[in-house]
Design brief:
By secondary structure, the chain is of the alpha+beta class. The chain has a domain of 152 residues: C8orf32 fold. 17% of the residues lie in helices and 20% in strands. The chain contains four helices and twelve strands; from the N terminus they run βββββααβαβαβββββ. Helix 2 crosses helix 4 and helix 3 crosses helix 4. The longest helix is centred in the middle third of the chain and has 14 residues. It is globular and about 55 Å long. This is Transglutaminase. It holds the Pfam family Transglut_core. InterPro entries: Papain-like_cys_pep_sf, Transglutaminase-like.
Length: 255
């Protein structure tokens, strides 16, 4: 199995405790960094039930996602070589099926941040969130047509529309607790959002929530959910239980 369950190397400087994967059985794990710079692990899981877990404290600024309305959209010829892959179609981001719609819908929006925000507004209003209708095979076009999905479907559709409009966009997965917002009546899960390359930087966008959030902890980035799957298995497996808990640690009050 391949595991993408560590926080992203860019956030390790913020750790207040160690963050390591633990197993309830004698399993050898070895780490590697994939082609997108994510910290991954490899294991050979024996037959039977295996519990994989991690627990850690991490510092966060407590500030919401950055908003930069003046961030420019680059001409393709000016993009760094390593960014070009995030303009291309991928497994879940079927740009070839949404290109005509994207140009018809967004050609008259302002270049740069305003165009990405227009895409987020559209996706946020177009897809209905329904945890019970999650589908691991649903592509961006599927989410567009069915108009239902979970956070990964919001991200895939927004990424695809951005790429159709020549804006590099990449898929992100990580922790996003109900911090600074009312708690939602759904089981806590990892969250999916996306980043776009504008003005020489990667900026966070979230088409599902469509508002800057606090306490976003990045785990991994890639072209789409294929590259950042929590587990990729080469043989039959069954997920028997899945728990994610993300809580804010409040400062101790002085007596």
């Amino acid at each position: 199995m391949l595991l993408v369950l560590n926080i992203h190397p860019s956030r390790r400087v913020d750790l207040l405790t160690d963050q390591t994967l633990t197993f309830d059985r004698d399993i050898e794990a070895w780490d590697y960094v994939d082609g997108f710079g994510n910290a991954c692990s490899r294991i050979t899981a024996p037959p039977g039930l295996t519990t994989i877990s991690t627990r850690f404290d991490i510092y966060d600024t407590g500030q919401p996602d950055i908003t930069a309305w003046d961030a420019i959209q680059h001409d393709i010829k000016d993009l760094p070589d390593e960014v070009l892959v995030f303009l291309l179609g991928s497994r879940y981001c079927d740009t070839d099926r949404l290109g005509n719609f994207a140009w018809a819908q967004f050609a008259n929006t302002p270049l740069g941040w305003g165009r990405v925000q227009a895409i987020c507004d559209f996706v946020h209003n177009h897809i209905r969130f329904d945890y019970q209708l999650a589908d691991a095979t649903r592509s961006a076009h599927g989410g567009f047509s069915e108009r239902v999905g979970v956070c990964r479907d919001f991200a895939h559709l927004a990424i695809t529309l951005c790429r159709c409009m020549n804006i590099p966009a990449r898929y992100c997965t990580g922790y996003l607790g109900d911090i600074g917002v009312p708690a939602v009546p759904y089981p806590m899960d990892f969250s999916a959002w996306f980043e776009v390359y504008l003005g020489g930087h990667w900026y966070t966008f979230d088409a599902r929530h469509n508002t800057p959030r606090i306490g976003r902890i990045l785990m991994a980035v890639g072209r789409d959910a294929t590259d950042v799957a929590l587990t990729t298995h080469f043989g039959p497996t069954m997920l028997s239980r899945f728990d994610v808990i993300t809580d804010e640690i409040l400062p101790a009050t002085a007596e």
